[in-house]
Amino acid sequence: xxxxxxxxxxSSSDQxxxxxxxxxxSSKKPQTIAAAQxxxxxxxxxxxxxxxxxxxxxxxxEPIPTTVKGTIPTxxxxxxxxxxxxxxxxxxxxxxxxFDGMALMHRFQIxxxxxxxxxxxxxxxxxxxxxxxxxxxxxxxxxxALPDPCKNFFQRFLSRFEMPKPTDNASVNFVxxxxxxYVSTETNCMHRVDPDTLESKQKVDxxxxxxxxxxxxxxxxxxxxxxxxxxxxxxxxxxFYNIIRVPxxxxxxxxxLEGAKILCSIAPRDxxxxxxxxxxxxxxxxxxxxxxxxxxxxxKIVTGRLRGKSLNEGVYWDPNQETIFxxxxxxxxxxxxxxxxxxxxxTFHQINAFEQDxxxxxxxxxxxDGQSINNFLIQxxxxxxxxxDEMYNTMSRPYPRRFVLPLNITSETPLEQNLNTRPDSxxxxxxxxxxQIFCTFEDLHGEDLKDYGGLEFPHINYxxxxxxxxxxxxGCGFRHLVGDSLIKMDLESKKFKVWRQPDLYPSEPVFIxxxxxxxxxxxxxxxxIITPVKDKSTFLLVLDAKTxxxxxxxxxxxxxxxGFHGVFNSSA
Length: 572
Known about the structure:
It contains 7 helices and 38 strands. The protein is mainly beta.
Protein backbone atom coordinates (compact mmCIF):
# COMPACT_ATOMS: atom_id res chain seq x y z
CA UNK A 1 0.00 0.00 0.00
CA UNK A 2 0.97 3.71 -0.54
CA UNK A 3 1.70 4.81 2.97
CA UNK A 4 2.73 8.03 4.77
CA UNK A 5 4.32 11.14 3.25
CA UNK A 6 5.82 13.11 6.11
CA UNK A 7 8.48 15.79 6.25
CA UNK A 8 10.65 16.40 9.27
CA UNK A 9 11.12 20.03 10.16
CA UNK A 10 14.76 20.29 9.20
CA SER A 11 -12.27 -6.86 -21.98
CA SER A 12 -13.07 -9.86 -20.43
CA SER A 13 -14.87 -9.61 -17.15
CA ASP A 14 -11.85 -7.48 -16.31
CA GLN A 15 -12.84 -7.02 -12.70
CA UNK A 16 -9.47 -5.59 -11.85
CA UNK A 17 -8.14 -2.93 -9.60
CA UNK A 18 -4.98 -1.89 -7.90
CA UNK A 19 -4.45 -1.14 -4.28
CA UNK A 20 -2.95 2.24 -4.74
CA UNK A 21 -3.46 4.47 -7.70
CA UNK A 22 -5.05 7.84 -8.75
CA UNK A 23 -7.81 9.11 -11.02
CA UNK A 24 -6.54 9.65 -14.54
CA UNK A 25 -5.79 13.29 -15.29
CA SER A 26 -7.33 14.81 -18.40
CA SER A 27 -5.66 18.23 -18.38
CA LYS A 28 -2.36 19.03 -20.02
CA LYS A 29 -1.18 20.55 -16.75
CA PRO A 30 -0.39 18.76 -13.51
CA GLN A 31 -3.42 18.69 -11.27
CA THR A 32 -4.05 17.97 -7.68
CA ILE A 33 -6.01 14.88 -6.82
CA ALA A 34 -9.17 16.88 -6.15
CA ALA A 35 -9.22 18.29 -9.69
CA ALA A 36 -9.03 14.92 -11.42
CA GLN A 37 -11.58 13.74 -13.95
CA UNK A 38 -12.87 10.20 -13.63
CA UNK A 39 -12.11 7.66 -16.32
CA UNK A 40 -13.86 4.30 -16.16
CA UNK A 41 -11.58 1.30 -16.65
CA UNK A 42 -14.06 -1.50 -15.90
CA UNK A 43 -17.79 -2.11 -15.73
CA UNK A 44 -18.07 -4.15 -12.58
CA UNK A 45 -21.38 -4.31 -10.75
CA UNK A 46 -22.44 -5.73 -7.42
CA UNK A 47 -19.19 -5.64 -5.47
CA UNK A 48 -19.73 -6.86 -1.89
CA UNK A 49 -19.35 -4.45 0.99
CA UNK A 50 -16.08 -4.89 2.92
CA UNK A 51 -16.64 -2.54 5.87
CA UNK A 52 -15.50 -5.13 8.48
CA UNK A 53 -12.12 -5.32 6.74
CA UNK A 54 -11.46 -1.63 7.46
CA UNK A 55 -12.90 -1.41 10.98
CA UNK A 56 -11.26 -1.25 14.39
CA UNK A 57 -10.59 -4.45 16.32
CA UNK A 58 -9.31 -5.43 19.75
CA UNK A 59 -5.76 -6.65 20.30
CA UNK A 60 -5.00 -10.19 21.51
CA UNK A 61 -1.78 -9.70 23.52
CA GLU A 62 -1.59 -13.26 24.90
CA PRO A 63 -1.18 -16.28 22.59
CA ILE A 64 -4.35 -18.20 21.80
CA PRO A 65 -4.62 -21.61 20.08
CA THR A 66 -6.01 -22.14 16.62
CA THR A 67 -7.97 -24.99 15.08
CA VAL A 68 -5.93 -26.71 12.39
CA LYS A 69 -7.72 -28.27 9.43
CA GLY A 70 -5.73 -30.27 6.95
CA THR A 71 -1.99 -30.45 7.57
CA ILE A 72 0.53 -27.79 8.52
CA PRO A 73 3.97 -29.16 7.54
CA THR A 74 5.97 -30.02 10.65
CA UNK A 75 9.17 -28.68 9.09
CA UNK A 76 7.88 -25.09 9.42
CA UNK A 77 9.41 -23.55 12.54
CA UNK A 78 8.91 -19.85 13.11
CA UNK A 79 6.36 -17.06 12.99
CA UNK A 80 4.60 -15.04 10.35
CA UNK A 81 4.76 -11.40 11.45
CA UNK A 82 2.21 -9.04 9.90
CA UNK A 83 1.60 -5.29 10.19
CA UNK A 84 -1.24 -2.96 9.27
CA UNK A 85 -3.86 -0.53 10.57
CA UNK A 86 -6.11 -1.78 13.38
CA UNK A 87 -7.76 1.25 15.00
CA UNK A 88 -9.49 3.99 13.06
CA UNK A 89 -10.90 6.31 15.73
CA UNK A 90 -10.28 7.80 19.16
CA UNK A 91 -13.29 9.05 21.08
CA UNK A 92 -15.63 10.71 18.61
CA UNK A 93 -12.85 11.59 16.17
CA UNK A 94 -12.27 9.34 13.18
CA UNK A 95 -9.37 8.99 10.79
CA UNK A 96 -10.12 9.93 7.21
CA UNK A 97 -7.76 7.60 5.38
CA UNK A 98 -7.12 3.87 5.49
CA PHE A 99 -3.37 4.46 5.89
CA ASP A 100 -3.94 6.57 9.03
CA GLY A 101 -5.08 3.70 11.26
CA MET A 102 -2.96 2.79 14.27
CA ALA A 103 -0.42 0.00 13.76
CA LEU A 104 -1.57 -3.44 14.88
CA MET A 105 1.08 -6.19 14.82
CA HIS A 106 0.19 -9.87 14.37
CA ARG A 107 2.13 -13.06 15.06
CA PHE A 108 1.23 -16.54 13.86
CA GLN A 109 3.62 -18.93 15.62
CA ILE A 110 4.05 -22.27 13.83
CA UNK A 111 5.64 -25.27 15.56
CA UNK A 112 5.15 -29.02 15.07
CA UNK A 113 2.13 -28.56 12.82
CA UNK A 114 0.30 -26.34 15.33
CA UNK A 115 -0.31 -22.58 15.29
CA UNK A 116 -0.91 -19.94 17.96
CA UNK A 117 -1.91 -16.33 17.40
CA UNK A 118 -1.38 -13.05 19.20
CA UNK A 119 -1.61 -9.36 18.30
CA UNK A 120 -0.64 -6.10 19.90
CA UNK A 121 -1.01 -2.42 19.12
CA UNK A 122 2.29 -0.65 18.64
CA UNK A 123 2.95 1.59 21.65
CA UNK A 124 4.02 4.49 19.48
CA UNK A 125 3.96 8.08 20.69
CA UNK A 126 1.02 8.65 18.36
CA UNK A 127 -0.97 5.77 19.83
CA UNK A 128 -0.09 6.68 23.42
CA UNK A 129 -0.94 10.38 23.10
CA UNK A 130 -4.17 9.68 21.25
CA UNK A 131 -5.19 7.10 23.85
CA UNK A 132 -4.42 9.36 26.81
CA UNK A 133 -6.49 12.23 25.40
CA UNK A 134 -9.10 9.98 23.74
CA UNK A 135 -8.87 12.08 20.59
CA UNK A 136 -6.54 12.40 17.59
CA UNK A 137 -3.48 14.35 18.71
CA UNK A 138 -0.99 13.47 15.95
CA UNK A 139 -1.72 14.16 12.29
CA UNK A 140 -1.50 11.29 9.83
CA UNK A 141 -1.32 11.08 6.05
CA UNK A 142 -4.98 11.88 5.41
CA UNK A 143 -6.05 13.30 8.78
CA UNK A 144 -5.10 16.68 10.21
CA ALA A 145 -5.22 16.74 14.01
CA LEU A 146 -7.48 19.51 15.28
CA PRO A 147 -6.18 22.12 17.73
CA ASP A 148 -6.57 21.30 21.43
CA PRO A 149 -10.09 22.44 22.44
CA CYS A 150 -8.76 23.21 25.93
CA LYS A 151 -6.63 26.02 24.53
CA ASN A 152 -8.02 29.53 24.08
CA PHE A 153 -8.79 30.94 20.67
CA PHE A 154 -5.42 32.71 20.31
CA GLN A 155 -3.47 29.57 21.25
CA ARG A 156 -5.45 27.46 18.80
CA PHE A 157 -4.76 30.05 16.08
CA LEU A 158 -1.02 30.05 16.77
CA SER A 159 -0.91 26.25 16.71
CA ARG A 160 -1.64 26.35 12.98
CA PHE A 161 1.80 27.91 12.44
CA GLU A 162 3.64 25.07 14.15
CA MET A 163 5.64 22.66 11.97
CA PRO A 164 3.93 19.25 11.77
CA LYS A 165 5.72 16.53 13.68
CA PRO A 166 6.26 13.26 11.82
CA THR A 167 4.16 10.38 13.02
CA ASP A 168 5.81 7.29 14.48
CA ASN A 169 2.76 5.16 13.69
CA ALA A 170 4.82 2.43 12.01
CA SER A 171 2.00 0.46 10.38
CA VAL A 172 3.51 -0.67 7.07
CA ASN A 173 5.95 -3.54 7.51
CA PHE A 174 8.32 -5.55 9.65
CA VAL A 175 11.94 -4.95 8.65
CA UNK A 176 15.21 -6.41 9.91
CA UNK A 177 18.48 -4.62 10.64
CA UNK A 178 21.47 -6.30 12.30
CA UNK A 179 19.33 -9.21 13.42
CA UNK A 180 16.71 -7.07 15.16
CA UNK A 181 13.12 -6.63 14.02
CA TYR A 182 11.59 -3.20 13.58
CA VAL A 183 8.19 -1.99 12.46
CA SER A 184 8.42 0.78 9.94
CA THR A 185 6.41 3.30 8.01
CA GLU A 186 8.06 5.95 5.79
CA THR A 187 8.89 8.65 8.32
CA ASN A 188 12.16 9.00 10.22
CA CYS A 189 10.88 6.90 13.16
CA MET A 190 10.86 3.12 13.48
CA HIS A 191 10.23 0.94 16.53
CA ARG A 192 12.36 -2.02 17.56
CA VAL A 193 10.04 -4.77 18.71
CA ASP A 194 10.31 -8.17 20.34
CA PRO A 195 9.27 -10.63 17.59
CA ASP A 196 7.99 -13.11 20.20
CA THR A 197 5.87 -10.85 22.43
CA LEU A 198 5.35 -7.98 19.93
CA GLU A 199 6.23 -5.54 22.71
CA SER A 200 7.70 -2.21 21.68
CA LYS A 201 11.30 -1.98 22.90
CA GLN A 202 12.78 1.21 21.48
CA LYS A 203 11.92 4.11 19.23
CA VAL A 204 14.71 4.61 16.67
CA ASP A 205 15.12 7.81 14.65
CA UNK A 206 16.96 7.57 11.32
CA UNK A 207 17.90 11.27 11.50
CA UNK A 208 19.99 10.62 14.63
CA UNK A 209 22.39 8.52 12.54
CA UNK A 210 22.33 9.94 9.02
CA UNK A 211 20.97 13.08 7.39
CA UNK A 212 17.65 11.72 6.13
CA UNK A 213 14.07 12.56 7.03
CA UNK A 214 12.68 9.08 6.57
CA UNK A 215 13.20 5.71 4.89
CA UNK A 216 11.05 3.20 3.06
CA UNK A 217 9.57 0.12 4.71
CA UNK A 218 11.05 -2.09 1.97
CA UNK A 219 14.81 -2.49 2.39
CA UNK A 220 16.83 -4.95 0.33
CA UNK A 221 19.55 -7.27 1.59
CA UNK A 222 22.81 -8.72 0.33
CA UNK A 223 23.57 -12.34 1.26
CA UNK A 224 25.90 -11.19 4.08
CA UNK A 225 23.07 -9.23 5.72
CA UNK A 226 24.05 -5.76 4.50
CA UNK A 227 20.86 -3.75 4.17
CA UNK A 228 20.08 -1.09 1.57
CA UNK A 229 17.28 1.44 1.77
CA UNK A 230 16.25 4.85 0.46
CA UNK A 231 15.16 8.02 2.19
CA UNK A 232 14.66 11.68 1.36
CA UNK A 233 16.42 14.63 2.91
CA UNK A 234 15.26 18.22 2.83
CA UNK A 235 18.02 20.82 2.81
CA UNK A 236 18.40 24.51 2.07
CA UNK A 237 19.01 23.62 -1.57
CA UNK A 238 15.88 21.49 -1.77
CA UNK A 239 15.08 17.80 -1.59
CA PHE A 240 17.42 14.89 -2.33
CA TYR A 241 16.90 11.15 -2.71
CA ASN A 242 19.43 9.17 -0.68
CA ILE A 243 20.67 5.58 -0.97
CA ILE A 244 21.32 4.17 2.51
CA ARG A 245 23.56 1.27 3.50
CA VAL A 246 23.39 -0.39 6.95
CA PRO A 247 26.15 -2.85 7.89
CA UNK A 248 25.20 -6.33 9.16
CA UNK A 249 27.53 -6.24 12.17
CA UNK A 250 26.58 -4.92 15.57
CA UNK A 251 28.98 -3.66 18.22
CA UNK A 252 26.76 -4.40 21.19
CA UNK A 253 23.30 -5.50 22.29
CA UNK A 254 21.97 -1.94 22.21
CA UNK A 255 23.33 -1.22 18.74
CA UNK A 256 20.63 -0.09 16.28
CA LEU A 257 21.54 1.92 13.17
CA GLU A 258 25.12 2.72 14.12
CA GLY A 259 27.36 2.57 11.07
CA ALA A 260 24.59 3.48 8.63
CA LYS A 261 25.88 5.61 5.74
CA ILE A 262 24.48 7.54 2.82
CA LEU A 263 25.90 5.78 -0.21
CA CYS A 264 24.69 8.30 -2.77
CA SER A 265 22.47 11.41 -3.00
CA ILE A 266 20.40 12.07 -6.14
CA ALA A 267 18.92 15.44 -7.04
CA PRO A 268 15.26 15.34 -8.11
CA ARG A 269 14.17 16.76 -11.43
CA ASP A 270 12.41 19.47 -9.40
CA UNK A 271 13.84 19.89 -5.91
CA UNK A 272 10.68 21.54 -4.62
CA UNK A 273 8.50 18.74 -5.96
CA UNK A 274 10.29 15.41 -5.51
CA UNK A 275 8.76 12.12 -6.53
CA UNK A 276 7.08 9.79 -4.07
CA UNK A 277 8.50 6.26 -3.92
CA UNK A 278 7.37 3.32 -1.84
CA UNK A 279 10.24 0.97 -2.67
CA UNK A 280 13.15 0.51 -5.08
CA UNK A 281 14.93 -2.21 -7.04
CA UNK A 282 18.28 -3.88 -6.43
CA UNK A 283 20.45 -6.19 -8.53
CA UNK A 284 23.78 -7.75 -7.58
CA UNK A 285 25.77 -4.59 -8.38
CA UNK A 286 23.22 -1.78 -8.59
CA UNK A 287 20.51 -0.03 -6.68
CA UNK A 288 17.75 0.99 -9.08
CA UNK A 289 15.74 4.08 -8.15
CA UNK A 290 12.53 4.73 -10.10
CA UNK A 291 11.73 8.45 -10.20
CA UNK A 292 8.04 8.40 -11.08
CA UNK A 293 5.67 11.31 -11.74
CA UNK A 294 3.72 10.96 -8.50
CA UNK A 295 4.87 14.24 -7.00
CA UNK A 296 4.96 15.80 -3.56
CA UNK A 297 4.48 19.56 -3.48
CA UNK A 298 6.67 20.43 -0.51
CA UNK A 299 5.24 23.92 -0.10
CA LYS A 300 1.70 22.57 0.15
CA ILE A 301 2.78 19.84 2.55
CA VAL A 302 4.75 22.14 4.85
CA THR A 303 1.97 24.76 4.91
CA GLY A 304 -0.84 22.21 5.20
CA ARG A 305 -1.45 22.83 8.89
CA LEU A 306 -1.73 26.58 8.30
CA ARG A 307 -4.20 25.98 5.48
CA GLY A 308 -6.12 23.32 7.39
CA LYS A 309 -5.16 20.60 4.90
CA SER A 310 -3.81 17.10 5.52
CA LEU A 311 -0.63 15.84 3.89
CA ASN A 312 -2.30 13.92 1.10
CA GLU A 313 -3.51 17.23 -0.33
CA GLY A 314 0.07 17.93 -1.42
CA VAL A 315 0.42 14.81 -3.57
CA TYR A 316 -0.41 14.88 -7.29
CA TRP A 317 0.13 12.97 -10.52
CA ASP A 318 1.85 14.64 -13.48
CA PRO A 319 1.22 12.46 -16.56
CA ASN A 320 3.33 14.77 -18.74
CA GLN A 321 6.56 13.80 -17.01
CA GLU A 322 8.49 10.70 -17.99
CA THR A 323 9.65 8.09 -15.49
CA ILE A 324 13.41 7.92 -14.94
CA PHE A 325 15.47 4.90 -13.84
CA UNK A 326 18.63 5.84 -11.93
CA UNK A 327 21.37 3.21 -11.43
CA UNK A 328 23.75 3.51 -8.48
CA UNK A 329 26.85 1.33 -8.17
CA UNK A 330 26.64 -0.42 -4.79
CA UNK A 331 30.41 -0.63 -4.41
CA UNK A 332 31.48 2.90 -5.39
CA UNK A 333 28.29 4.76 -4.49
CA UNK A 334 28.42 6.57 -7.82
CA UNK A 335 25.34 7.27 -9.88
CA UNK A 336 25.72 6.00 -13.42
CA UNK A 337 25.79 8.82 -16.02
CA UNK A 338 23.31 6.99 -18.26
CA UNK A 339 19.65 7.62 -17.46
CA UNK A 340 16.87 5.32 -18.63
CA UNK A 341 13.50 6.86 -19.47
CA UNK A 342 10.05 5.48 -20.06
CA UNK A 343 6.56 6.92 -20.28
CA UNK A 344 4.72 8.09 -17.16
CA UNK A 345 3.91 5.18 -14.88
CA UNK A 346 3.35 4.52 -11.21
CA THR A 347 4.95 1.68 -9.30
CA PHE A 348 4.92 0.69 -5.66
CA HIS A 349 6.47 -2.78 -5.49
CA GLN A 350 9.28 -4.34 -7.46
CA ILE A 351 9.37 -8.09 -8.09
CA ASN A 352 13.08 -8.66 -8.75
CA ALA A 353 16.09 -7.25 -10.61
CA PHE A 354 19.05 -9.16 -12.01
CA GLU A 355 21.97 -8.73 -14.39
CA GLN A 356 22.64 -11.06 -17.31
CA ASP A 357 24.63 -10.79 -20.56
CA UNK A 358 25.23 -7.04 -20.21
CA UNK A 359 21.63 -6.17 -19.34
CA UNK A 360 19.81 -5.37 -16.12
CA UNK A 361 16.30 -6.80 -15.99
CA UNK A 362 13.96 -4.78 -13.78
CA UNK A 363 10.65 -6.51 -12.99
CA UNK A 364 7.92 -4.61 -11.19
CA UNK A 365 4.19 -4.13 -10.81
CA UNK A 366 3.13 -0.87 -12.38
CA UNK A 367 0.20 1.07 -13.75
CA UNK A 368 -0.05 3.55 -16.61
CA ASP A 369 -1.80 6.05 -14.35
CA GLY A 370 -1.21 7.51 -10.98
CA GLN A 371 -4.74 7.38 -9.60
CA SER A 372 -6.26 8.90 -6.58
CA ILE A 373 -5.18 7.53 -3.27
CA ASN A 374 -8.18 9.41 -1.97
CA ASN A 375 -10.18 6.43 -3.18
CA PHE A 376 -8.92 4.91 0.03
CA LEU A 377 -10.64 7.30 2.32
CA ILE A 378 -12.27 5.14 4.95
CA GLN A 379 -15.73 6.44 4.10
CA UNK A 380 -15.17 5.31 0.51
CA UNK A 381 -13.94 1.86 1.47
CA UNK A 382 -17.06 1.37 3.58
CA UNK A 383 -19.42 2.21 0.74
CA UNK A 384 -21.70 -0.28 -0.92
CA UNK A 385 -23.84 -0.59 -4.02
CA UNK A 386 -23.33 1.73 -6.98
CA UNK A 387 -21.01 4.08 -5.11
CA UNK A 388 -18.60 1.23 -4.39
CA ASP A 389 -18.81 -0.04 -7.96
CA GLU A 390 -18.09 3.41 -9.35
CA MET A 391 -15.06 3.92 -7.17
CA TYR A 392 -13.67 0.53 -8.19
CA ASN A 393 -14.35 1.08 -11.87
CA THR A 394 -12.41 4.36 -11.92
CA MET A 395 -9.23 2.66 -10.73
CA SER A 396 -6.43 1.52 -13.01
CA ARG A 397 -4.83 -1.87 -12.43
CA PRO A 398 -1.21 -2.81 -11.79
CA TYR A 399 0.42 -5.41 -13.99
CA PRO A 400 3.81 -7.14 -13.79
CA ARG A 401 6.22 -5.81 -16.40
CA ARG A 402 9.89 -6.09 -17.31
CA PHE A 403 12.26 -3.35 -18.43
CA VAL A 404 15.56 -4.41 -20.02
CA LEU A 405 18.32 -1.86 -19.34
CA PRO A 406 21.55 -2.18 -21.38
CA LEU A 407 24.58 -1.59 -19.14
CA ASN A 408 27.53 -1.30 -21.52
CA ILE A 409 26.84 2.10 -23.04
CA THR A 410 29.85 3.80 -24.66
CA SER A 411 30.55 6.51 -27.22
CA GLU A 412 30.39 3.75 -29.84
CA THR A 413 26.86 2.67 -28.93
CA PRO A 414 24.62 3.12 -31.99
CA LEU A 415 21.80 5.64 -31.73
CA GLU A 416 18.11 5.22 -32.61
CA GLN A 417 18.04 1.44 -32.67
CA ASN A 418 16.87 -1.17 -30.21
CA LEU A 419 19.76 -2.29 -28.01
CA ASN A 420 17.84 -5.17 -26.47
CA THR A 421 19.23 -8.27 -28.17
CA ARG A 422 17.81 -10.77 -25.69
CA PRO A 423 15.93 -13.57 -27.48
CA ASP A 424 12.16 -13.74 -27.05
CA SER A 425 12.07 -10.32 -25.36
CA UNK A 426 9.71 -7.65 -26.64
CA UNK A 427 11.07 -4.88 -24.42
CA UNK A 428 13.01 -2.12 -26.18
CA UNK A 429 15.87 0.19 -25.22
CA UNK A 430 16.77 2.91 -27.73
CA UNK A 431 19.75 5.21 -27.18
CA UNK A 432 18.80 8.78 -28.14
CA UNK A 433 22.00 10.41 -26.84
CA UNK A 434 25.08 8.96 -25.15
CA UNK A 435 23.45 9.32 -21.71
CA GLN A 436 19.74 8.92 -22.50
CA ILE A 437 18.01 5.66 -23.31
CA PHE A 438 14.27 5.39 -23.83
CA CYS A 439 12.73 2.05 -22.81
CA THR A 440 9.48 0.20 -23.30
CA PHE A 441 8.42 -2.82 -21.27
CA GLU A 442 7.36 -6.37 -21.95
CA ASP A 443 4.48 -7.98 -20.09
CA LEU A 444 5.26 -10.69 -17.54
CA HIS A 445 1.77 -12.13 -17.88
CA GLY A 446 -0.81 -13.29 -20.37
CA GLU A 447 -4.09 -11.59 -21.23
CA ASP A 448 -6.01 -13.81 -18.81
CA LEU A 449 -4.50 -12.02 -15.81
CA LYS A 450 -6.92 -9.19 -16.56
CA ASP A 451 -9.73 -11.44 -15.39
CA TYR A 452 -8.17 -11.36 -11.91
CA GLY A 453 -7.69 -7.60 -11.69
CA GLY A 454 -3.95 -7.51 -12.32
CA LEU A 455 -1.40 -8.35 -9.63
CA GLU A 456 0.17 -6.60 -6.66
CA PHE A 457 2.00 -7.47 -3.40
CA PRO A 458 4.59 -9.51 -5.37
CA HIS A 459 6.88 -12.01 -3.61
CA ILE A 460 9.59 -14.40 -4.78
CA ASN A 461 11.89 -17.03 -3.30
CA TYR A 462 13.96 -14.09 -2.00
CA UNK A 463 16.57 -16.09 -0.07
CA UNK A 464 17.84 -17.87 -3.17
CA UNK A 465 16.69 -15.84 -6.15
CA UNK A 466 16.80 -12.17 -5.22
CA UNK A 467 19.13 -10.39 -7.72
CA UNK A 468 19.29 -13.63 -9.77
CA UNK A 469 17.44 -15.01 -12.80
CA UNK A 470 14.23 -16.65 -11.58
CA UNK A 471 11.11 -18.34 -12.87
CA UNK A 472 8.25 -17.84 -10.39
CA UNK A 473 6.64 -14.97 -8.56
CA UNK A 474 3.57 -14.80 -6.35
CA GLY A 475 1.06 -12.05 -5.62
CA CYS A 476 -2.53 -11.03 -4.99
CA GLY A 477 -5.15 -10.55 -7.65
CA PHE A 478 -7.43 -7.53 -7.18
CA ARG A 479 -11.00 -8.02 -8.32
CA HIS A 480 -11.96 -5.82 -5.38
CA LEU A 481 -10.40 -2.86 -3.58
CA VAL A 482 -8.27 -5.32 -1.62
CA GLY A 483 -6.73 -8.60 -2.71
CA ASP A 484 -9.28 -11.34 -3.36
CA SER A 485 -7.09 -14.10 -4.80
CA LEU A 486 -3.58 -15.57 -4.62
CA ILE A 487 -1.63 -16.06 -7.84
CA LYS A 488 1.50 -17.98 -8.81
CA MET A 489 3.00 -16.89 -12.14
CA ASP A 490 5.39 -18.94 -14.29
CA LEU A 491 7.64 -16.58 -16.27
CA GLU A 492 8.55 -19.24 -18.83
CA SER A 493 5.00 -19.98 -19.91
CA LYS A 494 3.34 -16.82 -18.54
CA LYS A 495 0.63 -19.06 -17.21
CA PHE A 496 -0.53 -18.93 -13.63
CA LYS A 497 -2.23 -20.88 -10.87
CA VAL A 498 -4.91 -19.30 -8.66
CA TRP A 499 -6.32 -19.81 -5.18
CA ARG A 500 -9.63 -18.01 -4.78
CA GLN A 501 -12.79 -18.61 -2.77
CA PRO A 502 -15.94 -16.46 -2.50
CA ASP A 503 -15.97 -13.76 0.22
CA LEU A 504 -12.39 -14.53 1.29
CA TYR A 505 -9.65 -11.89 1.07
CA PRO A 506 -6.00 -12.99 1.32
CA SER A 507 -3.01 -10.97 2.47
CA GLU A 508 0.19 -10.80 0.46
CA PRO A 509 1.73 -14.26 -0.07
CA VAL A 510 4.95 -15.07 1.81
CA PHE A 511 7.17 -17.84 0.42
CA ILE A 512 8.87 -20.25 2.87
CA UNK A 513 11.64 -22.46 1.49
CA UNK A 514 11.38 -26.15 2.39
CA UNK A 515 14.33 -28.10 3.85
CA UNK A 516 16.59 -29.69 1.23
CA UNK A 517 14.81 -27.73 -1.50
CA UNK A 518 16.17 -28.40 -4.98
CA UNK A 519 13.77 -26.44 -7.17
CA UNK A 520 12.82 -22.79 -6.98
CA UNK A 521 9.24 -23.43 -5.89
CA UNK A 522 9.97 -26.13 -3.30
CA UNK A 523 8.22 -24.67 -0.29
CA UNK A 524 4.95 -23.25 0.94
CA UNK A 525 2.99 -20.01 0.68
CA UNK A 526 1.58 -18.39 3.82
CA UNK A 527 -1.29 -15.91 3.68
CA UNK A 528 -3.76 -14.56 6.25
CA ILE A 529 -7.36 -14.90 5.05
CA ILE A 530 -10.17 -12.67 6.33
CA THR A 531 -13.83 -12.28 5.48
CA PRO A 532 -16.45 -9.54 5.92
CA VAL A 533 -19.41 -11.94 5.98
CA LYS A 534 -18.73 -13.99 9.11
CA ASP A 535 -17.57 -12.77 12.50
CA LYS A 536 -14.23 -14.01 13.90
CA SER A 537 -13.47 -16.28 10.96
CA THR A 538 -9.83 -15.48 10.23
CA PHE A 539 -7.42 -18.24 9.25
CA LEU A 540 -3.80 -18.73 8.26
CA LEU A 541 -3.67 -20.47 4.89
CA VAL A 542 -0.81 -22.79 3.89
CA LEU A 543 -0.46 -23.62 0.18
CA ASP A 544 1.98 -25.96 -1.52
CA ALA A 545 4.05 -23.45 -3.51
CA LYS A 546 4.61 -25.93 -6.35
CA THR A 547 1.03 -27.13 -6.92
CA UNK A 548 -0.69 -24.14 -5.30
CA UNK A 549 -3.07 -26.52 -3.60
CA UNK A 550 -4.15 -26.04 -0.01
CA UNK A 551 -2.27 -28.09 2.56
CA UNK A 552 -3.99 -26.78 5.63
CA UNK A 553 -5.39 -23.82 7.50
CA UNK A 554 -5.26 -22.63 11.09
CA UNK A 555 -8.54 -21.02 12.14
CA UNK A 556 -8.36 -18.30 14.77
CA UNK A 557 -11.48 -16.80 16.40
CA UNK A 558 -10.57 -13.12 15.97
CA UNK A 559 -11.28 -10.31 13.55
CA UNK A 560 -8.34 -8.81 11.67
CA UNK A 561 -8.51 -5.77 9.37
CA UNK A 562 -6.91 -5.98 5.95
CA GLY A 563 -3.22 -5.22 6.46
CA PHE A 564 -0.17 -4.31 4.44
CA HIS A 565 3.06 -6.30 4.74
CA GLY A 566 4.90 -8.91 6.77
CA VAL A 567 7.82 -11.33 7.02
CA PHE A 568 8.54 -14.85 8.21
CA ASN A 569 10.84 -15.10 11.22
CA SER A 570 12.42 -18.55 11.14
CA SER A 571 13.31 -20.28 14.39
CA ALA A 572 14.80 -23.34 12.70
